[in-house]
Amino acid sequence: MDTLFVSIAVILAGGAAGLLFYRQFTLMKLVTIITTSAGCGIGLYFVLPKLLQGTTATVSYNWMHTLTLFFQLDSVSLFFLMPIFLIPPLTLVYSFHYLENREKRLRTGVNYFFFSILIASMAMVVMSANMITFLLAWELMSISSFFLVMYDYESSENRKAGYLYFIFAQGGAMLLFAAFALVHSHSGSFDFNSFAAIPEQAKLLIFILAFLGFGSKAGIFPLHIWLPKAHPAAPSHVSAIMSGVMIKMGIYGIFRMYLLLDPATPVIGQIVLVTGMVTGILGVVYALAKQDIKQLLAYSSVENIGIILIGLGIGMMGVSGQNQAMAFFGFAGAFLHVFNHSIFKSLLFMGAGSVLHKAKSKNIEELGGLMKRMPVTGRSFLVGSVAISGLPPFSGFIGEFLIYYGAFQGLTGEKLPFILTVLAIISLAVIGGMASACFTKVVGLAFLGEPRTEQADNASESGIAMGAVMSIMALSCLLIGVLPEPFVRLAFSGIQDITAVSSFNSDSFLLIVRHLSKTAMLFIAIFIAVSLFRKILYLKKEIGSGSTWGCGFTQPTVRMQYTGTSYAYEMVEFFKPFVPIKNAYTGVKKIFPGKTTWQSEVTDIAETGYQRYLTTPLLSFITKLKWIQHGHIQLYIGYIIVAIIVLLLFL
Amino acid sequence: MLELTTIIPFFAGIIAIFMPVRVGRGILVLTALLHLQLTVMGWLGKITPAFPEYFAVTDEGMLILLVTSFVFLFISIYAVSYMSETEISSEPIYTGCTLFFLSTMTMVTMADHIIMLWIAIEATTLMSAPLIFLHRSKTALEATWKYVMICSVGIALALLGCFFVVMSMDLGGIHVPITFSSLGTVADKLDPVWLKAGFIFLVIGYGTKMGLAPMHTWLPDAHSEAPSPASALLSGALLNCAFLGVYRCHQLLYQAGLGDFSSNILVGFGLFSMLIAAIFIFHQTGYKRMLAYSSIENMGIIAFGIGIGGLATYGAMLHLIHHSLIKSSLFLSSGNVLLGYGSKLVNKTGNMAKLFPKTFTAFFAGFAGISGFPPFGIFISELLIIMGAFQQGRSVVVSIFIFALILVFAGASRLVTKMCFAPCENPEILVKENWARTLPSFALLAASLILCIWLPDSIYETIISAIATIGGSVNG
Amino acid sequence: MESVLAFCFAVAIAPLLPAVIQKTKAYFAGKQGPPLLINYYTMIKLFKKGSVYSTSTSFVFKLGPVVGFSTSLMMLLYFPMAEVAPIFSFHGDVLILFYLMGLGRFFTILAALDTASPFEGMGAAREAFFSTLAEMTIFAILILFFKLTGSLSFYEFFSGDQAIDLMGEYSALLILVVVGLYVVMLTENSRVPVDDPATHLELTMIHEAMILDHSGPDLALIEMGAWFKLLFYSGFLARLIDPFHAENVIVNGLLFYAVVTFIYISIGVVESITARYKMPQVPKFILTPFILVFFVIILSMGVMQ
Amino acid sequence: MIELSSAFFSINHLSDALMSLTILSVLMSLGSNRLMALVKIMAFQGIVVSLTPLFLEHHESMNFSSIILLLIMLFIKGMLIPGFMYAAVKKIKIRREVEPIIGYHASLFAGLLFILLGAFIANRLHISLPVENDLLLITAITTLSAGLFLLMSRRKAITQVIGYLMMENGIYLIGTALAKETHTMYVVEFGVLLDLLVGIMIMGIVLHNINSSYNDVDTALLGQLKDN
């Protein structure tokens, strides 16, 4: 356990170095990145063996006389520590070439400082074992990430995003305060261990409060609206860490809360599952509808949070239905997907950052043809896209396979659990299909075809640090997909301390995993064989090149390419009541029509919902009450008299 | 002779008025240091009151005295630099009046006699009114008028409350000195109806001074018009002193077995203040007004916490300490902003992050602190208050409490992000920031931070024994 | 050994069977139609040719046919053709195989988008949409099969104690599934009424529009992949409805392929007597079997208990 | 009503006469629109109120120091403050309270209501009161309420100060009415004195400044600081 604190200290020291040496730009970046990464390395070195051995540890410190800072490690926290220590070093290395603006060196230093605080606080969130410690770390995480989002505060969009994020973070934290306080009111203790002993009927309310609180961080629908704003606003290495790791803290919280409460009611699992389905499907539909890569990726994070929640929900329903296999695979699948998603989502955000860096745009309608101009970014982005679509032989599939497997085990249930399980499987299928559609759109329009703007045409490959990191991550996506067994074992050891499933024997499943691995290898073998066969066929043959077949049209321009909006239109329209589309068409008039425009915009139903039913009425109500402070002393004295009269009535 | 803490600033003030400006500044800082020194000696038990019939050392009083003295020291250091940059009618008047103000506030913290407390609080109004009027503008005049008028009415009502308390003694047939400490011992014999009536008038009276809604109306005006060091003093020290009056009365009622009655009133006022603050923080145009409303909110939180009882009282006491430190730091930073941009309007400011990095750091850190983000102490205090409230089973009121907190945060963070990050329309910096005017803010924030990491035993024990008198404890 | 032979036979016969469809359609049109071996000729012709690549394309364009072909081949490796155990099989293989098909589609779509052609983009969008809808039906069918057999593998669906049998206990339910699967087959293989490969206007195509720019061996790979896929789906259907169970493996296999041929003919018949739906109608058409199968799942809940 | 009339018929002390005079002055101030007249009424009221303790039964055994205090009170309330106000009004050009927020007739009517209110409260408190001096209490409450009423219903700053004064008088009377023990005596006097001093001094200064910056003392001008 001490090693972990050492690692956190080293990470923080790295961040502090960012502040101290900001005048020497390159030196600062080097020192910070190396120190922080070393800290993460120490952490990983500690966590990995512990996770596999399945040891637990506790440490507690006295704080402010009455409170204690209590840390505990069990398999769940150890598992979540993995992405926390694994992803940041990679994104930091990436940032070496990403943050190149020497004029913003102070800001870069500050960015590194809060980055290190974010890592440290996330580690502390996962380690903490009482309410105080947890909330302390949680709030530190919120505020440090707020500063990270505000890096480019010059743009008003970004400021709005930061503001929105701030409110959701604080609002969510308040709900957590309430949830924990409710527990405390029943148990009288700050300890996490006291959760299970509280009366059963209180648990549902507590869980729902905590679910909403954590959900606002994780980005469950409809509490997700800060995500698609904050992620485009943040610099890409920050989006990578926020989307890849930080929102998982929300998942961790939900799961931890569930474990601690250990509720008997099946309703909790059902709530989580249904939320997961809604979040997943709507997340991916909105992702499909967006043309801003980073926004799209943010919605895709919402979708993946949905998938993870489906996994957790399946697991919880398995626990309440005494179906150990279902519980085991649901949890394990969710865990593995957490891990996988942290890798490929960071990869994708870094790819998007690289594109933004070089092609100066994150709108896919303004990109195109980048695969040739940015080969490393393009290839790794392609791998990431395949992985996130959950397609074999890449990592995303393995996690989803486990969840599917768990869900299929749950088909033995009755009535509501059965129907929910069926719906879960079908939503997973729909999410998978839509995700493929979504990522073919990104890759196909941004990286393939012809560049749509001059900037995209002039793009070149990003710095070596960025390329190297992205390649490593792409390779690891493939590695996990082809050789999943160690990683599945990792997920299994992640859930070994969960009492409901700890006695489950997973050996037969490992056999299946080996088959999966074989199938993946077989596929790759066939793929290589076919490629060779194709090579042979083309030997000594004339290979011409020309322009694309224009179906008879002889003067093609790049603007004729299919647009992202059109690509997604039919699919998005299919979900119309939940995904409002606003079209504006000027129409063709007169005999010789002039220039005409057609515009289509998809608005987030949650956002408009908040606006229409929450903020607007609330603000207008507040505005109506402004007369209270209306400037005249006579009225003010009147208030005092009214107050006295009212109080005297209580006498 | 703990009364020296009152007497010394008073005479120092008289001297300062007749001295040249530079000497006056020296006197100010020296007196602040001396005051802190005496206060600490008082804490250590080295000196005790010489007039026990009027003054007494109480736990809560000493706590507030320490906070006041500490905050005053840094504000006066700041004021030295601030006053040299700003145009005010007469600096000796400022120096003198702040010292008088300190003297009267010290008196409040030590007062044990009911009337002495009342006199001291009344005297704070008298001494602080010139501070608000220091800029001599029409708006300053208006603010002063409102401040004096509303507070006088309030305080007059508090006097009536004092009569009622005395009345309840007469009816109970008790013959003891009219001090809180002696009344506390015979509290159960006091006539309950008159005691309750007395409490109502006292809480309205002192609540006016403390800024509890709906008697808060003077507060935003006064805080926004006073020069920033004075605003910092008003918010960081005066409100606490007024709170002490309310606290003492609540204590008396608790000892008389009427705790429920007074608690409910405090909870009601607390929530109402928070909601009112939330309403006015939204769409607020002036940042000093915003801070003033935030003070109203925080006073509401403290009243709420005290009213809830149990664990929440501990939270409320911590909140009081940290609010003083952070809010005065914020007002000091806002002074820099005012000097820099020359306007109190949020719209005229902007891009502080680039134009005033030091002030920005202090201001934003203060804002984060006041909103309940760690590593500042308000995080713990709010958490404890919420926990305490749930523990008492007050789930409805605590829901309103949380709602108000979120609302205030949403309103305030909008303005703060605007000030800190939004582009400034005419980036003409009138006065540059310097360390002399930013270090005090940082020092106050650092104090909050340190108290959050390491709370000295004596402070902890003092809080515990203070809240024990109203039935609060850390174990619920 | 049997499995390998069955696999080889399936691969060999895959190009032959689509010609049956063409023959059927020709019969309905009163024409003679192409020879049955037409696809083999086409294959040889294409393999001999070179290719012309658009300057817009990148390596992804060349990846498309290879991945598409490989994934289709994978299906045949894992599917028990002719009632013979497949070469590979394990519990859970259906999931990875349908996802592999998704991978094939993914790269086909990318290859289409790589050409920067508006028509291919349009085809790609439709393909992505319709296949997602079809996937819902497929997974609903898998759920049902798991419910019936407790298995997640093609081989286990049709073998063992609880093998799916149209004549068995749940025949009423299975008939609905057959209808659903048939529609999925039409959708996934771009047949009328979802898609019309023989149309003249690129605007109205789906699959054909996506491969407009492929030529030579690449096109051959795509075509072969498509045939494998069609064979897989009709094989799946045939396993469901095949009423014959002979002792002899070869006889059994022949009977199986007879049923498969029957399915191909039925496709020909459908293509001859119906027209392609309007594009906005297609989603409804594809969703209908999903609703059917979902209904069956709900029913099965009552039956199984 | 019966209680009220019985209270009026029990005038058998000089103090009761003083009380009636006080109520009269209150009603007059409510109905008056001339600032100068108001000041004079206040001086009169101040004197009457200061004298009241002298004529109360339980204060007959007064000692020397309380007499001194009473004299100081008389001086401040009857001379110093009215003199101060007089000077202020002299300086200001405006002599009338124009357009009060609540009109004079309505104000007078409100004054009557305050008397009723006072009688009602006094009646309610009848049993628990240590001293049976209903009329004093009625007067006190009426004065207090009328003071608050003036504060709320008048526009001119001077009138508001007068309202404040009247309120203080009411508080003083209540204190006198409620006090039984000698030790509370000083409390009331001392408190009210300080309050008056503080309040009036500050208000005087502010008033002076208001006049010099606005050339008027209308508080309608003092409505710039607001949030709507």
Task: Break the fold down into its secondary structure elements and pairings.
The complex is a heterotetramer of chains A (651), B (476), C (305) and D (228).
Chain A (H helix, E strand, L loop, with lengths): L1 H19 L4 H29 L3 E7 L3 E7 L1 H24 L6 H23 L3 H19 L6 H32 L12 H19 L8 H7 L2 H26 L5 H23 L3 H28 L3 H36 L10 H4 L1 H14 L6 H15 L5 H33 L6 H4 L6 H19 L2 H10 L12 H32 L4 E4 L17 H11 L6 E5 L12 E5 L2 H20 L8 H18 L1
Antiparallel strand pairs in A: 1-2, 4-5
Helix pairs in contact in A: 1-2, 1-4, 2-3, 2-4, 3-4, 3-9, 3-12, 3-18, 3-19, 4-5, 4-9, 5-6, 5-9, 6-7, 6-8, 7-9, 8-9, 8-11, 9-11, 9-12, 10-11, 10-16, 10-21, 11-12, 11-15, 11-16, 12-14, 12-15, 12-18, 12-19, 14-16, 14-18, 15-16, 15-18, 16-21
Chain B lengths: L3 H14 L3 H23 L15 H27 L5 H20 L3 H19 L5 H35 L7 H6 L6 H19 L7 H8 L2 H28 L3 H23 L5 H22 L2 H31 L10 H4 L1 H14 L7 H14 L3 H27 L13 H19 L3 H12 L8
Chain D lengths: L1 H8 L4 H18 L3 H17 L12 H28 L12 H22 L8 H20 L3 H22 L3 H33 L14
Helix pairs in contact in D: 2-3, 2-5, 2-6, 3-4, 3-7, 4-8, 5-6, 6-7, 7-8
Q: In brief, what are we looking at here?
A:
The complex is a heterotetramer of chains A (651), B (476), C (305) and D (228). Chain A is mostly helical.
Q: Level of helix content of chain B?
A: over 70%
Tell me, rounded to a whole number, the average pLDDT of chain B.
91
Question: Low-confidence spans of chain B: pLDDT under 50, at least 5 residues?
Answer: none
Which whole number gives the mean pLDDT of chain D?
Answer: 77
Largest interface: A-C, 79 and 82 residues
Q: What class, by secondary structure content of chain B?
A: mainly alpha
Oligomer: heterotetramer
- By DSSP (H or I, 4+ residues per run), the number of helices of chain B equals 19
Sheet with the most strands, sense and barrel status of chain B = none
Would you report the number of β strands of chain D? 0
> Could you name the ranges of chain D where pLDDT drops below 50 across 5 or more consecutive residues?
1-11
Describe the structure.
The complex is a heterotetramer of chains A (651), B (476), C (305) and D (228). Among the domains of chain A are: 266-497, no CATH class; 605-651. By secondary structure, chain A is mostly helical. In chain A, the strands form two sheets. In chain A, strands 1-2 form a two-stranded antiparallel sheet. Chain A has helices at 2-20, 25-53, 75-98, 105-127, 131-149, 156-187, 200-218, 227-233, 236-261, 267-289, 293-320, 324-359, 370-373, 375-388, 395-409, 415-447, 454-457, 464-482, 485-494, 507-538, 564-574, 605-624, 633-650; strands at residues 57-63, 67-73, 543-546, 581-585, 598-602. Chain C has one domain (2-304). Chain C has twelve helices and one strand, in the order αααβααααααααα. Chain C has helices at 2-13, 16-29, 38-48, 59-78, 93-114, 118-149, 154-157, 171-188, 207-210, 216-241, 249-273, 282-304, and one strand spanning 51-54. In chain C, helix 3 (38-48) runs antiparallel to helix 10, helix 6 runs antiparallel to helix 8 (171-188) and helix 8 (171-188) packs antiparallel against helix 10. In chain D, helix 3 (35-51) packs antiparallel against helix 4. Residues 1-11 of chain D have low confidence and may be disordered. Classes of the chains: A mainly alpha (651), B mainly alpha (476), C mainly alpha (305), D mainly alpha (228). Chains in contact: A-B, A-C, A-D, B-D. Chains A and C meet through helix 14, helix 15, helix 16, helix 20 and strand 3 of A and strand 1, helix 4, helix 5, helix 6 and helix 10 of C. Strand 3 (543-546) of chain A pairs parallel with strand 1 (51-54) of chain C, so a sheet runs across the interface.
